[in-house]
Amino acid sequence: MPYRCRSQHAVTPQGRGRYPGFDVLDNVHAWDDVTAGVVLARLALPGGLAFFTSAEVGVAAPLLDLLLAQDGDPRVPVLALIDARLAAGETDGWHYDEMPEDAQAWRDTLRLLDEDARARHSGRGFAELTSGKQAALIQAVQDAGTDGQEWHGWSAEHVWSLWTRYACTAFYSHPWAWNEIGFPGPAYPRGYLNAGLDSREHWEVADHDDEDPIPFADRVETARHEHADVVGEERAQERGL
Amino acid sequence: MRSNYRDIRARNDSAWLIPNDGTRTDHRLRADMRRYGDEDEVDIVVVGAGAGGGVLTQRLARAGWRVVCLDAGPFWDPDTDWVSDERAAHTLYWTDPRQIGGTDPVPLGSNNSGRGVGGSMIHYAGYTPRFHPSDFHTFSADGVGADWPIDYWDLKPFYEAIEQELPVAGQDWPWGDPHAYPHHPHPVGGNGQIFLRGARAAGIDARVGPVAIPNGRFGNRPHCIYRGFCLQGCKVNAKASPLITHIPDALASGAEIRPDCMVTRVVVDDRTGAATGVNYVRAGREHHQRARAVAVAGYSIETPRLLLLSATGRHPQGLGNDHDQVGRYLMVQGAPQTAGRFSEEIRMYKAPPPEVSSEQFYETDPSKPYKRGWAIQTVSPLPITWAEHVTAQGHWGAPLREYLRDYVHWATLGALCEYLPQPDNRVTLADEKDRHGLPVAHFAYSQCDNDKQLTRAATASLETILRAAGASEVITIDRYAHLVGGARIATHAEDGVVDGNHRVFGTPNLYVVDGSVLPTQGSANPALTIMALAARAAARLIAAARGGLAEAQLASR
Fold it and tell me: How many domains does chain B have?
């Protein structure tokens, strides 16, 4: 098994998680080497950005942090993972016929989000706003999508889908995110022996909830409050204006 | 029906032709493969090595035909090319540019489009239900869809043969034409247990299977290890795909599989009206493979595209398209997925996603305002797909993370709704070009009212099952699954692209042998039906050749 310093054990994004001590990387020795290679590569310090311009990073970095509630370290390097993907042209192939292909769509939507910011906040760009004001601008795009409206001539739903698809694909490909959600990651050649309700392998860790029960509904409610603290107040002001 | 392994090996030895030493690929078999030159006029060139092309190639090669099968993607080695990882499975998908439109655009790529030897069956879940007898005459019975020129009983012997060759595991099947499966059902994981529990409580009939994963060893294919990554390519060689179920025998029978070849045109001689071969690009160089016949097996987007790209003076709108039929009646199944939250740990990533299904709602219910129906199956999204499910509820930021942290507590079921074939749901050529300079496909899709009613009814049935199993919350995402149609079988050229022998109308030695020929889709996953149709098409080609019939005589049969 590759060496890992002690401070890097069971890392989760922003230290959040419900599976104490669970670290998928404890089992690297049980993976095939091709899979181990692609997963471990996600831990490397990202190289310099190849796709996004500096101005685009100013918009994309806070956008992605907000979408995934990455408000502190350790952070999954979502921006760098998306940058590498777009630089390599590694898209899913298809694109909506009213929109350009994904790489150009990313450039265009970041520029338009910045224009939204300048139009609503006396010329200040998205990067210069408080996270509350940024979140309100993002929420407006999602709201337009939910209502079936357009955003700068494109289906807002399609724009929202572009952002969340890339963001979630990058974030939930990272072993730290797997630690957070209790997913053990690669499973070849070992596989699973104990499938079935409430069954675990010896290397799986029980949901912490079992020891410290907080109903799921309450946890979601707490998360909604957290989220509302970011989006809510500013959004009310936006609507009031 | 139980299998006789001697009979299986007499027609397809693939499972015994892969190594039994823990590696997944017999490189010697590939290295020693028979190879043809571009100038050799082979008996048939097959375009695409998926469910249709793979089976056709194997059957014809075994009958002594000189076959070259071209595929745009790689000749996979599961040991080195595939990973046990959701994100890195990206290489399995067809990711050349395509445009989607209509009022309900259908995402392609990872959702439904494969590349490489084995085709989309490399990343399909593994469900292999048969169509029901009613699927072959929905127009006569219900006034919707279309009637096929063949019926279920024409296809039944080929269903049985393919089920043995994959082989399929499952309980005795009570729906459609009741039948048994060659292998016993697999044990089920948490997701399957929830489905069975909820179905029992709700009074809905459910069965384990049908899944194309042998229960036990099969030939040199090992037992499934229940690792849950079926959709990322089976590194075990347990889940069936043509790469392991038909290609090894094709190689041993003298077929050439030529990977990394993008076919750009079916070449037709306008003087004779016959196809003479195909043009393709390999490693940046253009080639022409001569052949006495051509079979296109590129699936529902690339097959119509290739026919449209192959226009000639005699067929200025594309091959088989004299009546504006190419690309039309392309179908997807509505695939709402509903997840339910349970206090127990489900851990749906363990065990294969395909486990349990129900076809109780498959047929038209005369008491309902809509026609046709849906099937229900377990689906077990891995984290990235699960995140998509959660974001579809409108969650982002902290609530998104909270739902994902709860991943182990959720069970997920999916429906496959029989959306109806419609002429305007079609592939056309867009202005945009791909890296070969060829126009890319544009796929327009819009739902009709019957489709929307089916989705609502199916979603309600999923929620009923999960609630009955004890779910405290249910959340649904509307998705699409599978592609079929686009070059459908018909009796007359005015209604389709190929005849009952898969021959393209207007070009006597050109065939389409893949999912694009289906006139209706039922609520069944299409892989088994595509393979059975290919086996039937091959049997008819072989019989005709043995009878010494000239191409023109066969056309009038």
Answer: 1
CA–CA distances in Å: residue B511 to residues B55, B258, B293, B329, B423: 14, 19, 8, 18, 21
Structure tokens at A138: 């993002």
3-state secondary structure of A115: helix
Look at B442 and A97 and tell me if their CB atoms are within 8 Å.
yes
The answer for A 184-203 residues in CB contact with B (under 8 A) is 184-200
Q: Do B387 and A171 touch (CB under 8 A)?
A: yes
Domain containing residue B76: CATH number: 3.50.50.60
3 state DSSP class of B411: strand
Are B171 and B333 a contacting pair, CB within 8 Å? no
Whole-angstrom distance, CA of residue B432 vs CA of residue B428:
12
Tokens 């407006």 locate to: A140
Name the residue range of residue B14's domain. 5-555
* Residue pLDDT, tens place only, B1-13: 567 899 999 999 9
Q: What pLDDT score was predicted for residue A224?
A: 86
**CA angle at B303 for the pair B117 and B450, rounded to the nearest 5°:** 110
Determine whether the interchain pair B100/A96 forms a contact, defined as Cβ–Cβ distance below 8 Å: yes
**Stretch 498-557 of chain B: residues touching chain A, C-beta under 8 Å:** none
Amino acid in position B184: H
Place of tokens 């993976």: A31
Q: Which residue of B98, B345, B405 is in closest CB contact with A180?
A: B405
A14 torsion bin: left (phi>0), alpha (psi -120 to 50), beta (else): left
**Residues 6 or more apart whose Cβ sits within 8 Å of residue B455:** B334, B336, B415, B417, B447, B478
B293, B513 Cβ separation under 8 angstroms: no
Residue B7: which H helix or E strand, with range?
A: helix B5-11
Interchain pair B84, A188: CB under 8 A: yes
Q: A222-231, B400-409, B531-540 — which is least confidently predicted? A: A222-231
A interface test, pick of B106, B343, B396, B472 with most A CB neighbours within 10 Å = B396
pLDDT digits (tens, 9 = 90+) for B126-165: 999 999 999 999 999 999 999 999 999 999 999 999 999 9
Distance CA B203, CA B193 (A): 15
Q: Is A96 within 8 Å of B235 when comparing Cβ atoms?
A: no
In the block, which residue shows the tokens 């020795």?
Answer: A29
The region that residue B176 occupies, defined by phi over 0 for left and psi between -120 and 50 for alpha, beta otherwise, is: left
Spell B275-310 as b/e; 16+ CB within 10 A means b: bbbbbbbbeeeebebbbbbbbbbbbbbbbbbbbbbb
- Chain center to CA of B8: 22
Does a cis peptide bond (omega within 30 degrees of 0) precede residue B210? yes
Q: What chain A residue is nearest to B396 in terms of C-alpha separation?
A: A67
Predicted-assembly ipTM surpassing the 0.90 threshold = yes
